[in-house]
Each structure stands twice: as C-alpha cells, then as structure tokens.
Amino acid sequence: MDVILDDRDIKLIQLLEQDARQSSTEIGKRLGMSSSGVRRRVNKLIKDGTLHISAYADPDKTGFPLEVLIAFDVENNKINQVMKLLCDKPEVHWVAATTGRFDILTLGRFKSTRELYHFIATEISTLEGIINTETFISLHTEKRFAIPVISVK
User: Of 119, 124, 115, 118, which is closest to residue 82 (Cα–Cα)?
Assistant: First the structure.
C-alpha cells in the first residue's frame, strides 16, 4: 500500500533531514502544531517505513577512511542472489542493481587497502555468479550521504 504524504509530513521530514536531534516542541513551532502531534506523525512515518532515523559517524574519525565503489558484472539469473549476499557483508553499506555496463554497484568502507584486498580476495571472489568486478577507490569525497560506518548485526 502506498503511503500518501501531506504537506506537513513532507516539511516534517525535511526538518528532520536538516537536524534529527530537534525537539518535537521546536519542530511543532516551525510547523504550527503541537509537540504531541509531531511525535504522532513521526511515529506513524517510522511505523509505515517512510522515515528512518539513524546516527552516523564520520568514517575518517572512526577508522574507516577508505571509501570504495565496487561494480559487479553478474550472470543475469544470479543478480538478486548476489545482491542479497552483498547486503550481508558488514563492509558493504549500499547495494543497487543498475543499468549500463555493470549489473550491481556497491559502496563499502575499509580501514586500509590491505583490508580491501582481503575482502576482494576472500569474500567477493567466492560469490557464485560474478563474472567480473571493477573497484574504484575514492580519493576525496566532497559530499557524503548518510551511511553507517560500522554495521552492527
């Protein structure tokens, strides 16, 4: 079932994207509603899966300075299987099926090139259905979207 967002829901989400630590009272003042109304809306948006609130650490400050895109060429009948397996890897923080030259793109974080090498040589090389990979090491990230630095399972 599709969730229908009204203007207040959209503005609420935008305010939380700017700073998720804002109090319900502060957000309520900006939206012209009560703090309890804000909390009800936030809880509803979380419950229906529209909104996720998380904390993320700076990867450079937490020991994961190596940001890597890995592109996968995969057998057509194995794309979903490989995606699911990649999602289970704690080093991998983003997985997407794509169009173009590669079937899957991932974003991973590593402590070092040695850790990256180990991941590629032992984790990736054992996945069934992978035809080829290409790894792109980020030299500098100007803008980063919020992704967890360390996965907790």
Answer: 124
CA-based angle 82:87:92, to the nearest 5? Answer: 110
CATH topology of domain 7-47: Arc Repressor Mutant, subunit A (1.10.10)
pLDDT less than 50: residues of the chain: 147-153
Give residue-wise pLDDT tens across range 93-107. Answer: 999 999 999 999 999
Distance CA 83, CA 120 (A): 15
Residue spans in the chain of domains classed CATH 1.10.10 = 7-47
* Domain 66-137 falls under CATH 3.30.70.1060: no
Q: Which of 18, 13, 19 is nearest to 45 (CA)?
A: 13
pTM comes to 0.75
